[in-house]
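User: I'll paste a sequence; please echo it back and then give the predicted structure.

Assistant: Echoing your sequence first, then the prediction.
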Amino acid sequence: MEEGILDIKYYDMNTWNEYFNQDVLKLYEATVKLLKIYEQVRNLSGKNVIELIKDEGYNAILLGGVREDGSFTELSASKFYRDVFGLNFDVNAVISAIKVGESINVPVHFSENDIYKTLLNIYSNLDFILSAKGISKPNVSPPSLTDYRNVLETLNEFVETSSSFLSIYNPKTFFVTSLRGTTLKALRLAYPKLNEEIMKMFGLSKILEISYLPDPKKEYTIWGYANTIKLNLLDDQLVGTSIGSAIMIINCKIYKLLKFVFYLYLDLKASTENYYRRIIDDYWRLVSNIKTLSKIDIRGEGYFTCSINKFNVDCRIYRNNLVNFLNDIGLILIYVYRIKDFYNNGDMISISFDRYPDL
């Protein structure tokens, strides 16, 4: 099609104004709303559980689903708040105090768990994008911490919003993340109408230009988000230095949450594992689509390195001349791989690739 591999007007600034003011802003609101629940837990730090449970609302979330032996029922509200929101306290001490009618001090502790840290990182990148675009950030009101039903609804709202933002479902997010690093030739094949205004807005720059390669049109110069090279995108607290790299990081962080944490807690039912499994299956369908794009057999390869000696390319899964290699790798880098690292020493270049995102 005229637009390339995506049926969106990626070359039109109106498309991206809509994306920032709708998709990005909606994710920002859902993220802030959830983070404000964590702040309510933080504000409880040091307070006495024995006093708090005199309130019916706090009693429900602190001791809901707690057995007499301190263990939890399957749908325990107390366990949910502990595991998801980091609301910790000595459960056995509280149970013992209740049994003997003793008034002791059992303080609440707020644990900055992986969910919270990842949400903070998503927020930081969303905040960077909105600030860069001059978009006003709305005031967001969270539910009361003790409103268990609305807290759970807020969590599910974030999961639904973040899932719809993912590159496997949102063609605009796919477009931005697909610019992470490939040859100019591949970019033009995929997006014939890609223009300098869009490239500049997302922060594309030259990553690698092979000086000895006859390339008068610079077709084999690699463009992308230079600041994401050498980064482990699943590390904590990464903030992009361009709008494009920030969206790359957000995309990875959402996958991380859905993969490692959220599928356990979405609605406290076993069916939530199937929710994440559906995302994985959709991702691998995308991966399978690239088999026809290249002679490079990447099945099962999460990471691989190639050595380039002048015009000869040697990889464990591929051997060919340099021009053929750059032609074959181009569209793969748009779909499911990224340049992880490279070392350029004149005629000798070592370049490594990993899946993006790596599920």
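Confidence is low (pLDDT under 50) at residues 267-271. Strands lie at 87-88, 109-110, 181-183, 205-208, 222-224, 303-309, 312-315, 318-321, 337-345, 348-355.
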